[in-house]
Design a protein that fits this description.
By secondary structure, the protein is mainly α. It has a single domain, classed as ADP-ribosylation/Crystallin J1 (ADP-ribosylglycohydrolase fold). It is 61% helix and 0% strand. The protein contains 16 helices and no strands. The radius of gyration is 17 Å and the shape is globular.
């Protein structure tokens, strides 16, 4: 499998997990099972009442990052923040609370460098470390696959626009390092990511992810929007599944924050198995599939020296 197939798999897998999970967001596993058995198909209506295959804020913000990287020829956090604000002002049907607060602040004149930190500092523990940046960060891994130091730096900076908690910023870094390792065909991607991860990454982040896969009881995986829960659950399913489809389906059927858990699992599974392994019936339902393929091709061939 070549890197281009894996790169397309990252963006398309992210969108597939997002769109599969959107109709059942906030539902419990039991509620999903009662209605669908196991949800394996793109369906309409449900949460947010959108048509089949509709993407949410996960893919929409990932598109902002990918488009910025390609059009600016590298990582420009101010440009990414401006694109986020334009999207925020378009009235999206789904947007996280911390993201909305930070982008509203930037829209009101705050700097992208300070808005996310101020929102984080104002929120109490328990509501200050959501998954709103890890769900969107994967395009950065395509542009900087071969430069782990730069990849970590831009992952953290991109996160901090809206999510400045170290569990979020370093969470984006470890996720993107894992994706980069998979793009290289590494069979132990999470171990490689931890070897490269900065020493100042929070111990709580290391603890929940170092358990994957052998030291986790899958019945104890959590489905909330807390960044550590999302990363642990999504990475577990993406790295133990036998196929890309199984990874996304199992992640989404965990319930809870299904679109974001599905998006993260899909990005990792897409890197692991490639776009060619994603179900055509899912891709056919995505209106953004061709743009995602094109962006992936542009990102994976970018000169890393121009990407930062």
């Amino acid at each position: 499998m070549d890197r281009s197939d894996r790169a397309e798999g990252v963006l398309l897998g992210l969108a597939c997990g997002d769109a599969l999970g959107r109709p059942v967001e906030f539902r419990s596993p039991g509620q999903i099972a009662a209605e669908y058995g196991t949800l394996t198909e793109m369906v309409g209506d449900g949460t947010h009442g959108q048509p089949t295959g509709t993407i949410t804020d996960d893919t929409e913000q990932a598109l902002c990052i990918a488009r910025s990287l390609v059009e600016q020829g590298g990582f420009d956090p101010e440009d990414i923040a401006e694109r986020f604000v334009a999207w925020y002002n378009s009235g999206p049907f789904d947007i996280g609370l911390m993201t909305a607060d930070a982008l509203g602040s930037i829209d009101g004149g705050a700097s992208w460098e300070t808005a996310g930190r101020e929102v984080w500092e104002e929120r109490p523990e328990g509501s200050n470390a959501g998954n709103g940046s890890v769900m969107r960060c994967a395009p950065l891994a395509l542009a900087l696959t071969d430069d782990p130091d730069a990849l970590q730096r831009v992952s953290r900076e991109s996160s901090a626009i809206t999510h400045a908690d170290p569990r979020c910023t370093h969470g984006c870094a470890v996720l993107n390092l894992t994706i980069a390792a998979l793009l290289d065909g590494d069979e132990q991607p999470l171990s490689r990511a931890f070897d490269a991860l900065n020493a100042d990454a929070p111990e709580s982040l290391r603890e929940v992810l170092e358990q994957i896969p052998d030291d986790i009881d899958p019945t104890e995986l959590r489905n909330s929007g807390f960044v550590l829960h999302t990363l642990q659950t999504a990475l577990y399913h993406a790295l133990v599944a036998d196929s890309a489809e199984d990874a996304v389906v199992s992640a989404v059927n965990e319930g809870g924050d299904t679109d974001s858990i599905g998006a993260v699992a899909g990005a990792v599974a897409g890197a692991r198995f490639g776009a060619s392994a994603l179900p055509e019936r899912w891709l056919d339902a995505l209106s953004v599939a061709e743009e995602l393929r094109d962006l992936a091709g542009e990102l994976v061939t970018m000169d890393p020296s121009h990407s930062t």
